[in-house]
């Protein structure tokens, strides 16, 4: 009887593993493989079939200044957004943990629950040059003489995109840090206070080191997600003005569905995948976040 139950559990575990493997292949392996295959073909919606193109698509994108510009813009956007999200997220989480309430926590986490399309519309309305609240406040307070068109230059448009991104995605960092703050034993802080540390020394020498593991993981995840970000940039600026906010995902989208060249779009997607793969490997080898989590 006992053996029959063990056999049933073994069969169920095997089926569950098989389903997970099929799901992983369907949503991860096949799309990535297909993008890599497309990068070596001439293909599009108006072509009868795919033909082998070798490395022509890669030569096309590597000789295109717009590709390198999109790479630089994407790196700047991902770096600034991630740094701001982590600094603000850690600071807000510590404040909420010490002085917050459930209502304050829910209010702070609210932007992360709002759909990205709603976030983009709200930020477009708030920064509108005619009726936006930002321009109205700055004009009436005397900070500026005339309304600013936030999508008129690359710098202003990138600032708008970055601000909206930080506003929406910082709550994710707050959520992760809050969960880890609750695991720090109060005796650690009591011992530090017995030694006479002030709040600043407690923050620098106790709290931040204890949060090293989640901070390293958050930097890795947010860096990858922000480099891959497409929706909020497309909804706010569509990559403009004149490519001023075009990152590599937007560049790949325009190549595939604007220029109807799936081959070039696949090549750009493959380059994005390779960049993130190399970044992930170097980051994990340098900081070993998995060991930090196990240690924590």
Judging from the principal axes of the Cα atoms, what is the shape?
globular
Averaged pLDDT: 89
The poorly predicted ranges are none
Estimate the strand proportion. Answer: under 5%
Description:
This protein has 296 residues and is an all-alpha fold. 76% of the residues lie in helices and 1% in strands. It has helices at 2-38, 56-62, 65-99, 102-113, 116-126, 133-140, 154-181, 186-194, 199-210, 212-227, 231-236, 248-258, 262-287, 289-295; strands at 41-42, 51-52. The chain has a two-stranded antiparallel ribbon. Strand 1 (41-42) and strand 2 (51-52) form a beta hairpin. Helix 10 runs antiparallel to helix 14 (289-295). The longest helix is centred in the first third of the chain and has 37 residues, at 2-38. It is globular, with a radius of gyration of 24 Å.
Labels describing this entry:
two-stranded antiparallel sheet; globular
Helices and strands in order:
Elements: H1 2-38, E1 41-42, E2 51-52, H2 56-62, H3 65-99, H4 102-113, H5 116-126, H6 133-140, H7 154-181, H8 186-194, H9 199-210, H10 212-227, H11 231-236, H12 248-258, H13 262-287, H14 289-295
Antiparallel strand pairs: 1-2
Helix pairs in contact: 1-13, 2-13, 3-7, 3-10, 4-7, 10-13, 10-14, 12-13
In short:
With 296 residues, the protein is mostly helical. It has helices spanning 2-38, 56-62, 65-99, 102-113, 116-126, 133-140, 154-181, 186-194, 199-210, 212-227, 231-236, 248-258, 262-287, 289-295, and strands at residues 41-42, 51-52. Strands 1-2 form a two-stranded antiparallel sheet.
């Amino acid at each position: 009887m006992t053996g029959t139950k063990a056999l049933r559990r073994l069969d169920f575990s095997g089926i569950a593993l098989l389903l997970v493997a099929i799901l992983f292949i369907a949503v991860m392996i096949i799309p990535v493989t297909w993008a890599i295959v497309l990068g070596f073909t001439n293909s599009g919606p108006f072509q009868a079939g795919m033909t082998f193109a070798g490395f022509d698509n890669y030569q096309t994108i590597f000789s295109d200044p717009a590709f390198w510009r999109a790479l630089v813009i994407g790196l700047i956007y991902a770096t600034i957004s991630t740094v701001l999200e982590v600094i603000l997220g850690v600071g807000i989480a510590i404040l909420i943990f010490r002085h917050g309430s459930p209502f304050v926590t829910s209010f702070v986490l609210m932007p992360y629950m709002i759909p990205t399309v709603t976030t983009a519309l709200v930020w477009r309305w708030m920064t509108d040059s005619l009726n936006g609240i930002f321009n109205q406040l700055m004009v009436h307070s005397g900070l500026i003489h005339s309304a600013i068109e936030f999508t008129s230059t690359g710098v202003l448009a990138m600032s708008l995109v970055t601000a909206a991104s930080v506003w929406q995605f910082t709550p994710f960092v707050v959520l992760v840090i809050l969960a880890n703050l609750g695991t720090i034993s109060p005796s650690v802080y009591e011992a530090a206070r017995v030694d006479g540390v002030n709040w600043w020394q407690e923050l620098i020498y106790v709290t931040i080191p204890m949060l090293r593991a989640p901070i390293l993981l958050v930097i890795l995840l947010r860096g990858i997600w922000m480099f891959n970000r497409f929706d909020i940039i497309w909804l706010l600026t569509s990559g403009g003005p004149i490519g001023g906010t075009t990152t590599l995902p937007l560049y790949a989208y325009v190549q595939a569905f604007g220029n109807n060249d799936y081959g070039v779009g696949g090549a750009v997607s493959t380059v994005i995948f390779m960049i993130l793969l190399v970044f992930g490997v170097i980051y994990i080898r340098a900081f070993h976040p998995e060991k930090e989590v196990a240690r924590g």
